[in-house]
Amino acid sequence: MVSSWGAFMKDPKSTVRYLGMQAFKDGSRRFDFSFSGPDASLKLISVEASYDLFSGPNQIAIQECAGICFETLKYRVVGCSETVPASISLTSADVAQH
What we know:
Elements lengths: L6 E4 L4 E9 L5 E8 L5 E8 L12 H15 L10 E3 L2 H6 L1
Parallel strand pairs: 4-5
Antiparallel strand pairs: 1-2, 2-3, 3-4
């Protein structure tokens, strides 16, 4: 299942766009984004969310996860001078922070 939203975050130097989500048989999810930085190059980046984040007493709703992934990307990638990774893993600390 893949859904698509429009531009989700924009500032003068960077743009992050949510492209969609894919569910896997093990219950994990992958949220895909495009990212263009100050140099205007376009990169794709995925945020992997393990099944554990969607179960148990501190579980998050699937509907919340795209926003949490977006906020995590902003925190980790936007304005960072390092190379943008192809994927990152969402952690329980990211969920608690965002």
